[in-house]
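Supplementary Methods S3. Input chains for the assembly prediction are listed below.
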Amino acid sequence: MSGFDLSHLTASFSGKRVIGPLSLQVSPGDKVALVGKSGAGKSTLIRLIHERVNRDASLIPQELGLVNALSVFHNVFMGQLDQHATWYNTLTLARPFARDRTDVQELLQALGMAEKLRLPASSLSGGQRQRVAIARAIYRNAPVLLADEPVSALDGPMANSVMTLLRDRFTTSIIALHDVELALNYCTRIVGIQNGQVALDQPRENLVASDIMSLY
Ligand SMILES: Nc1ncnc2c1ncn2[C@@H]1O[C@H](COP(=O)(O)OP(=O)(O)OP(=O)(O)O)[C@@H](O)[C@H]1O
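Predicted structure tokens for the full assembly:
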């Protein structure tokens, strides 16, 4: 599955509705940017979509979810944990298989972090940690990417390079982005969220930055 049709998406906290009810239909090949001001509901919507799509998604959550005590290799390998038998994962914890090490190393190379393979995640900077979560999502190789501000801790050139990589590696994606220029440059469809509802849903070519800024 690389497209999906979700309806009746709702979320509430302490009895207060923060999302929906809303529907979202995503076709295979859509590269959706979720935009909207802080607190609009983008992260909550990504979580709701992940609950529905689950194993078909590669997720980059805003909180990253790295295990500090484990190496960069093992954090990336976690992207495929549910695709291997328990014995394979247990052996990998002690001593990774050469093929997996090579695959992860190649990914880290593409993310400018080749020399970090064996280091614990605790020793990384914020931007490096974010790239490990990105590598984990790419390594998972699911049909759909769900990402919540995946390049927020990266400098401009690195953010562009990572967005290019994500665009090339995933046919279908939904990415929450604060950076309107990145949204317009790397996505094919812009979905604006306002007060938990879809306030804008347009192909990228119909929009300029000022159209999106009206959401803020
Ligand atoms: N765990 C929670 N408990 C209570 N309220 C929450 C919780 N998570 C989110 N909210 C509320 O839900 C609303 C939407 O939050 P959400 O994190 O989805 O927004 P967002 O658009 O992703 O914001 P940002 O761009 O700042 O990440 C906000 O009003 C927020 O306060």
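The helical segments are 42-53, 72-77, 86-94, 98-110, 126-140, 156-169, 180-186, 209-213. The chain has a mean pLDDT of 95.
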